Amino acid sequence: MKIAPTVLLILFLYVSCGKEPESKRPDIQPEMEIQNWARPGVQGQMSGAYFTYKNPLEISDTLVSIESPQAMMTQIHESYTTEDGLAGMREKKEIIIAPGQELVLKQGGLHVMLMNLNKDLSENDSVKVSLTFSQIGTTTFTLPVKRN
Ligand SMILES: [Cu+2]
User: What does each C-alpha distance from 73 to 35, 105, 136, 140, 144 come to in angstroms?
Assistant: First the structure.
């Protein structure tokens, strides 16, 4: 029970602080703030990469391919939950982004799956992911590896 006084103190501070400090950017909702990152992984196994890509064109664009030099195979996955509550993920093939729309890759949603990693990915490493679209061509993201 040694930690109880600490917990109480934290609770007390939390309660006495009242409302959280106001955001410096009230126009941006916290849940809209997207982090760019990839998770650590072991050689031969998987990692996930998360970021947002906005289509800057005035026409729709289609994702043609995705690759990373650090994985043998790279796919866009979507997470799903069945009626029985079973969670899984599957490859998402056709991705078309309307003009000005964002492709949001995040945990629990669409994400980049790096499969069969060429070597370990550790915190403070970085991962390159290249997206090739039919209209705009190839865009490469460099993402820091970190724990979420
Ligand atoms: Cu996946």
Answer: 23, 17, 23, 16, 19
Cα 130 to Cα 35: distance, rounded to the nearest angstrom:
17
Q: Residue 22: its pLDDT value, please?
A: 54
Centre of ligand 1 to C-alpha 110, Å, is: 8
Tell me: pLDDT of 30 over 50.
Answer: no
79 Cα to the center of ligand 1, angstroms: 7
Distance from the CA of 130 to the center of ligand 1, in angstroms?
17
Domain covering 32-144 assigned CATH 2.60.40.1890 in the classification:
yes
What are the boundaries of each domain within the chain? 32-144
Q: Convert the pLDDT of each residue in 68-121 to its tens digit.
A: 999 999 999 999 999 999 999 999 998 999 999 999 999 989 999 999 999 999
Q: Which residues surround ligand 1, an ion (CB under 5 A)?
A: 77, 89, 113
Handedness of CA 28, 111, 72, 136 (dihedral sign): negative
Compute how many other C-beta atoms are within 10 angstroms of the C-beta atom of residue 28.
10
